[in-house]
Specification:
Elements (H helix, E strand, L loop, with lengths): L9 H19 L1 H18 L1 H20 L18 H31 L9 H15 L1 H20 L19 H36 L6 H19 L3 H26 L2 H17 L1 H5 L7 H31 L6 H32 L13 H6 L5 H31 L8 H110 L4
């Protein structure tokens, strides 16, 4: 029997080696590291922004096509597979893994930024700026974002559970190319690196915001060392959770996390600008749907200021979601076995988007209402402090701020916990039970990289490295989509051929049955006729034998 150690794949050592070089560079030459990564990131955003917009929109369109096509009836698994998790636990895991820390960090910060600091289309601080702000927030957290997660999860679940592939990113490309050799290992290494950078970015946001909350409540400063201590403490907690396994650890944390988030949302709705927020939600939902094509392809040629805004926000988000996608996609594929493509795609694409819209409308809407009515100047605070500034205008602000710090910590633990499982899975040839040794190693690397990038350049360094790593993986993701469509088409052809064969056989059987029935009916008629004629013949013969009177 193979040991756990013998199942470790070369991609693990390759990815760890490359990431170790990044960590060493960030420690040894932080200024040069920051300069180089900033230049590369700026080049990618400026030169390939059009590519990101088209690619992400393409992923979303493919998801909509799957919902309404005959492919939607196909199961993510064998035809008799049943879902492992109920809807509530399933949805909680989808949402916590997919958007967790981002919702809390940007819940107030992004709407306020678009409204009061740098509006993408209109003058700052106006009623129209508030509407435009929420429209772009919906765009960044709507069906485009979840379309990326959905499409990679479909690819992984379909090829793993229905086609019997390994569960690796390379396994999804088998209809297009041979990925059993070096090429497959290179693809899986890129996937691991992209996954790590996406997760590390989120963990960095979480640590910075927890630091912001602690600083807002106490006299402790916002500093790198406090953020490093936070990362170390939370790392110990999520590694403990990771050792318990997916069913126990992640499910319990996900459900608890959703409860905390719901309590915070209800509290802000109860004491915030609820009516304004719900009116904003309704209005923005309409304008979002009406202008979705325009938003999807907005690149602002000839307008450097608008293009800079798009690079800073839209391109950053698309790269972040792509970098997150191997992690989120692998995890939600793991917990979605047994669901049909249509059921899965509708759930992943629509439901979390609507919940995110409600979250931003209430949290961000309340923040903008406070700013509009001069209750508090949230725009003068740092991004990491804006949520706590909003809570300071409400009752029991200290308690709710502590609750929010706890919510961020649990999101941190949930994301990192899930990440260690996914990274371990991709390091062990798709094993659904990666050894604790591998999960522990990845947990340490995630923490070390988050600390080093914060040290070398703060949140900007995190974003730079993530955008750089996301670019090559986006090409792999496009190939995965073409591979999926090719395989689905072949399966549909096989199903159609089989259905035609069954229909043909059924018609032949019916014709045979009809023929036999006619034959039997004819035989019965002959039998009846024979029985009916014989007595008449006998009587007529007897009459003939009688003497004539």
């Amino acid at each position: 029997m193979k040991s756990n150690e013998s199942s470790i794949q070369p991609v693990f050592y390759w990815a760890v080696g490359i990431l170790s070089l990044v960590i060493i560079s960030g420690v040894a030459i932080p200024n040069l590291f920051e300069t180089v990564t900033s230049n590369v990131q700026a080049f990618i955003s400026s030169t390939f922004g059009w590519y990101y917009l088209i690619a992400v929109t393409f992923f979303m369109i493919v998801c909509l096509f799957i919902i309404f096509s005959p492919y939607g009836k196909i199961k993510l698994g064998k035809d008799d597979d049943k879902p492992e998790f109920g809807y509530l636990s399933w949805f909680a895991m989808l949402f916590s893994a997919g958007m967790g820390i981002g919702l809390v960090f940007f819940g107030v910060a992004e709407p306020i930024s678009h409204f009061a600091i740098n509006s993408p289309t209109v003058d700052e601080g106006t009623v129209e700026a508030a509407r435009e702000s929420m429209r772009f927030v919906f765009f960044h957290y709507g069906i485009h974002a979840w379309g990326i997660y959905a499409i990679i999860a479909i690819c992984l679940a379909y090829f793993t559970y229905r086609k019997g592939k390994s569960g690796l990113i390379s396994g999804t490309l088998s209809p297009l190319m041979n990925t059993d050799g070096l090429l497959g290992k290179v693809i899986d290494t890129f996937a691991l690196i992209a996954t790590v950078t996406g997760i590390v970015t989120s963990l960095g946001f979480g640590a910075v915001q927890m630091n912001g909350g602690i600083s807002y409540l106490t006299d402790l400063p916002i500093s790198f060392w406090l953020q490093a201590i936070i990362i170390v403490i939370v790392t110990i907690l999520f590694l403990t959770s990771a050792m318990t396994g997916i069913d126990k650890g992640i499910r319990i944390l996900s459900n608890f996390n959703m409860l905390l988030a719901l309590l915070l949302l209800l509290f802000i709705a109860g004491f915030g600008a609820t009516l304004y927020s719900m009116n904003l939600f309704t209005n923005t939902l309409g304008t979002y749907l009406q202008t979705l094509p325009e938003l999807s392809f907005r690149i602002a040629p000839g307008s450097p200021e608008s293009r800079s805004w798009i690079n800073d926000w839209t391109i950053f988000y698309w790269a972040w979601w792509i970098a997150w996608s191997p992690y989120v996609g692998t995890f939600i594929a793991r917990v979605s076995r047994g669901r049909t493509l249509r059921e899965f795609t509708v759930a992943v694409l629509i439901v979390p988007s609507i919940v995110g819209f409600i979250w931003f409308s209430i949290v961000g809407g309340t923040g903008m209402s406070l700013e509009l009515n001069d209750v508090i100047s949230l725009s003068s605070l740092g991004d990491e402090e804006m949520m706590f500034g909003l809570l300071s205008t409400m009752p029991i602000s200290t308690i709710t701020s502590i609750l929010t710090i706890g919510l961020i910590a649990v999101f941190f633990i949930t994301s990192a916990d899930s990440a260690t499982f996914v990274l371990g899975m991709h390091s062990t040839n798709g094993s659904l039970n990666p050894p604790n040794k591998i999960k522990f190693t990845w947990g340490v690397i995630l923490a070390a990289m988050a600390i080093v990038l914060l040290y070398s350049g703060g949140l900007q360094a995190l974003q730079n490295v993530m955008i750089i790593a996301a670019f090559p993986f986006s090409i792999i993701l496009l190939l995965m989509v073409f591979s999926l469509l090719k395989s689905l088409r072949y399966e549909q052809i096989r199903v159609t051929v089989q259905e035609k064969k069954e229909i043909r056989e059924l018609r032949q059987w019916k014709r045979k049955q009809e023929k036999e029935a006619k034959k039997e009916k004819s035989a019965n008629k002959k039998m009846k006729r024979k029985k009916g004629v014989e007595p008449v013949q006998e009587s007529s013969v007897e009459d003939e034998d009688k003497p004539k009177q």
